[in-house]
Amino acid sequence: MTLTYLALGDSYTIGEGVEEGRRWPMQLARGLREAGIAIADPRIIATTGWTTDELSAAMDAAEPLGDWEFVSLLIGVNNQYRGRDVDDYLGEFTRLLQRAIALANARADRVLVLSIPDWGVTPFAFASGRDRRLIADQLDAYNAAAREVCAAHGVAFVDITGISRDGGDAPDMLAEDGLHPSAAMHARWTEAALPTAMVLLSNA
To answer: Is the C-alpha dihedral spanning 153, 23, 36, 188 positive or negative?
Structure first.
């Protein structure tokens, strides 16, 4: 049986500035197949600029979404960018996570959450004049909240924020806009997520 995969998110999931086949969810599906796990390429519900509530609304519009064997979620950077409070993010993220679990046939062990990368390291952030230390601190707070919610729901959480900060300002790690990650950075995220995804999908 070929497993089905639903990827939920924003620009990081749709891969703004990256070829379709090199988005991390597509790379993850390929990596899983190479590891012997039969999984289809993902259906991606993600758009550049989406916040948690906008992703939720898009999921409402796409209903019925049906059931999936595997669901990934990466969302929140645009909440931070727009200056929204972490408590608002916490509530909306929790509801999205619960929806993701429901879409995964109520199996929390088939849901994978990735942390929010740090856009504050990018040339775009530097040119914008935004306080990059504040961006980092706010994203750390967002990610800490998400990690706690995932732990409470028994959902796997993979931290890619540190990866985004490690050379994330290098030209080969960036798309042409100087903000979004390149396919090479997506590959690094995939490498981090793949072992956890393999464990989840090895569960009967």
So the answer is: negative
Tokens of 68: 């999936």
Q: Name every residue whose Cβ is closer than 8 Å to that of residue 159 and which is 6 or more positions away in sequence.
A: 115, 143, 147, 192
Q: How many Å apart are CA 2 and CA 199, to the nearest integer?
A: 16
Q: 94-108: per-residue pLDDT in tens?
A: 999 999 999 999 999
* Rounded distance between C-alpha atoms, residue 154 and residue 148, angstroms: 10
70: β partners: 5
Q: Where are the beta strands (DSSP E) in the chain?
A: 5-9, 43-46, 70-74, 111-114, 156-158
pLDDT of residue 194: 98
Handedness of CA 173, 177, 178, 181 (dihedral sign): negative
pLDDT at 204: 67
Q: How far apart are CA 112 and CA 103, in angstroms?
A: 12
103 touches 65 (CB < 8 A): yes
pLDDT digits (tens, 9 = 90+) for 54-97: 999 999 999 899 999 999 999 999 999 999 999 999 999 999 99
Q: For tokens 């993220």, what's the residue?
A: 93
